[in-house]
Design brief:
Length: about 130
């Protein structure tokens, strides 16, 4: 990830910090945070696919804030991801992102024991961070 992308990541994170009470602005910054990471991966197909999934979830009203958790929890997860990226620690960034996605999925899909959640967790390789989740 380039210096400019790391700066964009931090700017999106700061906008989230500054707008914890403004859900629309918070989610716009959240979307940008994830887009910067996806773009930085160099995998345009993945970036486009995830963006489409995210748009679908948004249209269906699938958001974890404020219904299921506080914005500060999401910010803390994003800070862990951003720190690992800044430290150029791809394995740490991947684990932090996976934990973030699993936390969100658990809230959106349902109980940890549900078939949907277990299938989704297996699909994303969630067991790789089981001891840290």
């Amino acid at each position: 990830m380039s210096q400019q992308e790391r700066e964009e990541l931090e700017a999106a994170l700061q906008e989230m910090r500054d707008n914890v009470d403004d859900v629309k602005t918070f989610y716009t910054a959240d979307h940008r945070f994830h887009e910067v990471i996806l773009r930085g991966s160099g995998n345009r197909r993945l970036a486009d696919h995830v963006s489409g999934l995210r748009d679908t979830a948004t249209l269906q009203g699938l958001r974890t804030i404020p219904r299921y958790r506080d914005a500060t929890q999401v910010i803390a997860e994003h800070e862990r991801i951003a720190r690992a990226i800044a430290a150029r620690a791809p394995d740490g960034a991947a684990r932090a992102m996976l934990r973030h996605l699993l936390n969100s999925a658990e809230l959106l899909v349902g109980e940890k024991e549900s078939t949907s959640y277990l299938e989704w967790r297996e699909w994303v390789g969630g067991d790789r961070c089981a001891d840290e989740h």
